[in-house]
Specification:
The complex is a heterodimer of chains A (140) and B (390). With 140 residues, chain A is an alpha+beta fold. Chain A is built from four helices and three strands. Chain B is of the alpha/beta class and 390 residues long. The chains are: A alpha+beta (140), B alpha/beta (390).
Chain lengths: 140, 390
Amino acid sequence: MRHRTRRAGTAAGMLARLAGARRRFHPADPRPDAPPAGGWEVVTVNRPPNEVLPGGRRPEPLRRLGHAVQVDVWPAPAGRGTELAARIRPGAALPGLAAHVAGDDPDRVVRTALRQAKQLAETGEVLNADRSPIDRGLAG
Amino acid sequence: MRALCWTGAGRVAVRQVPDPELRNGHDAIVRVRLSATCGGDLPLLAGRAPYLADGDVLGHEFLGEVVAVGPQVHRHRVGDRVVVSSTVACGSCWQCRSGAPWCCDNGNLVPEASELAYGQAVPGAFGRPTAAGGFAGGHAEYVRVPYADVGAFGIPDEVSDERALFAADAAPAGWLAAELGGVHPGAVVAVWGAGAVGQLTARAASLLGADRVIIMDPREDRLRMARRHTDAETVDPRHPDIPAELRERTGGRGPDICVEAVGPAWDGRPRSLAERLTGAAERPPAVHEAMHSCRKGGTVVVLGEFTGQVDAFPLGAVGAKGLRVRGARQHGAGQVPTLLERMARDELRTEHLATHRLPLEEGARGYALFRDRRDGCVRALFSPDLPPAG
């Protein structure tokens, strides 16, 4: 997936393009404005596109990553829901805390955001780890 | 609360750890009444699994009483007696909705670990390393159960704790093996391993109409138990050539379905640092025999919990014999309710498998009995309510 060429756009525009479309990825994109290939992280969300991008808006926590991240969606084959893709725009920097968390692996932030967006859409919440004794004030 | 924690290669001990808390709306907290050892724990206990950390709580087979529920839990109430499926599945992703909760996309807190090992994130499970996305296990007074509506199941009043406990993992694993193998009336099924999972696989095969079920194990006491409690034939553990014996018993064809329910051969030796760093592999003799013995065009099901790579896998047999090789953990949501109904109807009995019942404080002894098959041990059960001896 990471090496296929995609065309990004606004979230509303993406939803508008979804009707009747079957496949988003192409081995080569002839459009001159197409971004460089590669770098996309993708998850399949078991919900229709209008639930993955409600009202054409990016889902949390992808929204918090701002315009540094491109987002795209497309129907998954065989009724599997929606393919939700994101990548950091070439040359862009993640905002605020995300930049601090990303360190030298900003793609990891994108992967985590995609997984959490998928969990939110599918289960209604992000699965939380147990808190450590320190976080609970029980250490020591 | 008290919990049986892994404390280093080959060692467990009861420690005081913080009580679990509700962390998601779908969570429940269960007060544990019984938990069980499982062969899948042994590589962890030995320190052969990466990511396991000092203090991780073991145990993925348990049942108990619901003592708290999150606001999104609708199927359970405080006071319910429930058995909990060992694998954590969300019930909402495409894999879960397609009937494959053992492939759930959302039940793992640290998906990167299994992505690195297997190329895909696999669901978490209780009693598995928390650093690899697992959850604190059931050898404890209390357990947090994520997605409780999906993974916890009310137990019919007529089913005892000792019976229902096996619906957490061993019984659904056996049933899944029979289903994945495509057991049908007239089929001949061979099962390697006469532990709880092997015996419950044999029972499932019989109930699904298999014509013959043959079970093998190096321990004569386990084979006696299998003969008494299942419809299976057994093979003399001293037999020098198991595949030849199976050919003879199946008209030269070989069994239609071969189920490996042994797991990694383990000599009790902790994994060395060099083995851990180089990924030195296990050798699975039962898988070899199953591949070798299976009839052409048959199905081999691998149930053993191997922690990574194995050496000398007879890959050529897959193509040359046209074998179908399947593997899976278990299918809680799809099978546990049906299994509990069968238990309530007395079609599925498991009490004989619960050979030892011990307090948590005797966890080390229980695992040693189970690991070494001493004193006829098939499964050691732990009860936090039992007072420590002496």
